Amino acid sequence: MSNFLDSLQVELIFSLIIMVVMAIFFIYAGKKFATADPTARPKGVVLVVETGVKMIYDYLKSIMPKKFEKNYYPYFAMLFAYLVIANLSGLLGFEAPTSNYSITLALTTITFCLIQFNAIKKQGLLSYIWGAVWPPTNLLSILSPLISLSMRLFGNILSGSILMYLVYQLTGYISGLLINFNFLGPVIAPWLHCYFDVFAGCIQTLVFVTLSSILIMMENPD
């Protein structure tokens, strides 16, 4: 059992923690919605969730036609919520799950399968297979979203984590020349966290969701 736990990647453990916390929160929010007075002004958790869902749905409506609403809007809304929390979890001392390529590849694989599903639905199975294998270079164009989406998210989040680690090492070294305490880190790091964790994390979430939704829609535009 200990060998199994030792083999688990820390990012996977943090990802599971995030998903459990999200599940508990949404179950709680769902109960609040069920008992809320629809004629009263929303407040508290109901107001927060309602505002967040409306913002995401309004954004998705500007990209994907209404016919995608039932099957895809809830998926992308949950994906958006997970990625925002995962990308910002570094601020809480977690190892950001999206800094692990296996996690970004798993998320992208879902999008990749949805893209191919819509392509087969639009073209038919035989036409899809023929178009995928001839000319042979078409196979590269089919696989490119799987590689580009997963690597973009992984690379940006990982690079931010590495740069922040180097910042703490540098401030610790400079501080150590004076006293045995990293007093420069708390002064300099928060400003860089605002960019590498907050700004970059939110932007990468928006980019991933936007590109995923566009790629799915392109395969079934009608």
From TrEMBL:
Q: Name one Pfam family in it.
A: ATP-synt_A
A GO cellular component annotation here is: plasma membrane
Give the location in the cell: Membrane
Does the record carry Membrane as a key word?
yes
- What PROSITE patterns has UniProt attached to this entry? ATPASE_A
SUPFAM superfamilies noted in UniProt: F1F0 ATP synthase subunit A
Among the record's GO biological process terms, what is one? Answer: proton motive force-driven plasma membrane ATP synthesis
The way it spans or sits in the membrane comes to:
Multi-pass membrane protein
The principal localisation class reads: membrane
Record's keyword terms, sorted: ATP synthesis, CF(0), Hydrogen ion transport, Ion transport, Membrane, Transmembrane, Transmembrane helix, Transport
What GO molecular-function term can you cite, just one?
Answer: proton-transporting ATP synthase activity, rotational mechanism
The domain of life is Bacteria
Q: Where are the transmembrane segments?
A: 12-30, 72-94, 101-119, 170-192, 198-218
Q: Which family does it belong to?
A: Belongs to the ATPase A chain family.
Q: What is this protein called?
A: F0F1 ATP synthase subunit A
